[in-house]
Amino acid sequence: MKTANTMISKEDFRKFLDIEKLKYCFECGICTASCSMAELLGKDYNPRALLEEILLNPEEVINSYQLWLCAWCYRCYRRCPQALKVPEIFSFLKSKAVENGHLDPLNVALQKIVKQVPLPTVATLICFHPERAGINKDEILKKMEKMLREYLKEIENKKALTSASRHKIAVIGSGPAGLTVAFELAKEGYNVTVFESLPEVGGMLRKCIPKYRLPRNVLANEIQFLRELGVEIRTGVKIGRDLGFSDLFKEGYKIVFIGSGAHRTKKIKIEGESLKGVVYALDFLWNVNSGTIEEILKKVVIIGGGNVAVDAARTAMELGAEEVTILYRRSREEMPANPWEVKEIEDLGVRIQFLVAPKKIIGVNGKVSAIECVRMQLGEPDETGRRKPIPIEGSEFKQEVDMIILAIGEIPNVEFLPREIELNENGTVWTNPVTMETSLKGVFAGGDVVTGPATVIEAIAAGKRAAESIKKYLKS
Ligand SMILES: Cc1cc2nc3c(=O)[nH]c(=O)nc-3n(C[C@H](O)[C@H](O)[C@H](O)COP(=O)(O)OP(=O)(O)OC[C@H]3O[C@@H](n4cnc5c(N)ncnc54)[C@H](O)[C@@H]3O)c2cc1C
Q1: What is the position in ligand 1's atom list of the atom closest to the CA of 453?
Q2: What CATH number does the domain containing 461 carry?
Q3: 286-313 residue pLDDT tens
C-alpha cells in the first residue's frame, strides 16, 4: 500500500472516533459476516479488517480501494453490538481521500464492482454513492460504461468457448434479484427467460425509485447488456394470471427462480383509510414514475419511517407540495431510513414529527381533510428489537391535510405460488439459506420475496448465491 502524503488532523480523528464510536469496536466481525459486499467480493472486501486498519493507521487507509466498496445498506450497523455506523466511518475517510486527490483506489474499486457486482452502474448510483465524497457522478458512469463494455467482450469470448446449455431457466420478476440470476446464468450460456408482470423492466428500480436517483437511461443500458447476452425478457406477463406457475415446467423450464419482490402494501387499518386523497406510497411513486401524476396537492402527510417514506416525501416536494410532513411513531434513533437521506429531505424543508402516530383520517364529502394523531412514548423493546411505541393518553391533536401517503411497509404477494412452496410466518418465501432452494425441488427464490423489503445490494447478493446453486443443481 502506498503511503498517503496527507494528514488527518488529530482533532478530526478524535472527533470522528467519538462521534462514530469507532473506538468501541471490539472486532467481533459481525459487520463482515453480515455484509452483502463481503459476500459478493470474498477476500477483496473485509470491513472488519478495514476498521482495524483505520484505528491503527488512518493515513494508509485513505489509499485503500476497499473504502469505496461499502454499499451503504446499513446491514452491519443494524447488527453491530456497538451500533457502529460503518458507512459513515468509511465516508469520512473517502472525503479525505478526495480532498487529497487519492483517486486511484476508486478506479480499482470500480473495476471490482464492474466484474463482480451484476448491474454495476445501477448499484453505483443506488448503493455506492461516490458523489457523496465529492466525485462527479457522470464521470464515474462514463468510466464504468467503458469498463463494462470491455468486460462484456471478455464474457462474450468466454461464452463462445462454452457449449451452450440445453437447460431453459425461468425467472419470475425483473428486479435486481431476477436480473442478477439472469445475468449470471446467461453469461455461462444458459437459456434464460425473465417474466415480468409490469410493462417495464427493472422491478422497484423502475417502478418506485425516483428518476432523480436513478436516471432511466442507466437502467436501460444495463438491461440492453442483458439482452445482448441473450436473456429473453417478456414484460406484461404475470405468472399466476397470464401463465400458471406449473405451466412453466410444462413449457420445458427446468428451473424456476422466484424474484417477485414485496409489492403488497400493508394496510394501516384506521378509520378513513379509503377516503379520496389517501394513497399508498408504492402506487404514488409508480404513478409519478410512469407520468400519471405530474402535480400534487398543497399539504401532504406521509406516514412511515423507512426509505420508501423518505422517497415519497422528497418526490412530493419535487412535485411542488407546499408542506410535506412525515409522521413516524418512534424516535429518530429507530428510524429505518438511511440517516443521510433523512438529513437531505430535512434540508429540503420536509418536517419530520417523531413519536407521533395516526389515529383517524377525517374527511369532508368523501375526501381527506385532516388527520387525528396521538403522541407516543417508547417502552420496552418489541419482537423487532426496537423500543415499542406506546400512545400517551390525552395527547391527541388534529392537523389539516390535503393528501396522505401511506408508507408503513410492504409484504410479498405470494398468491400465485403453489402450495408446496413453504412460507415463513411473516409471509415471505422460505428458502434454504445456503442454496436458496425453496421447499419445491428445482425452484429457487431470493431478494425481497425472501427477506421482506431490503436493499438492492442484498437482492443482487441473493441472486448471485441462487445462480451459483442453480448451476450446481443442473450439473449434479
Ligand atoms: C421507493 C423505494 C426506494 C428504495 N430505495 C432504495 C435505495 O435507495 N437503496 C437500496 O438499496 N434499496 C432501495 N429500495 C429497495 C430495493 O428497491 C429492493 O430491495 C429491491 O428492488 C428488491 O429487489 P427484488 O429483485 O427482490 O424485487 P423487486 O425489485 O421488487 O422486483 C420484483 C419484480 O417482480 C415482478 N413480479 C411480481 N410478481 C410477479 C408475477 N407473479 N409475475 C411476473 N412478475 C412479477 C414485479 O412487478 C417486480 O418488477 C427501495 C425500494 C423502494 C420501494
Answers
A1: 19
A2: 3.50.50.60
A3: 999 998 877 777 899 999 999 999 999 9
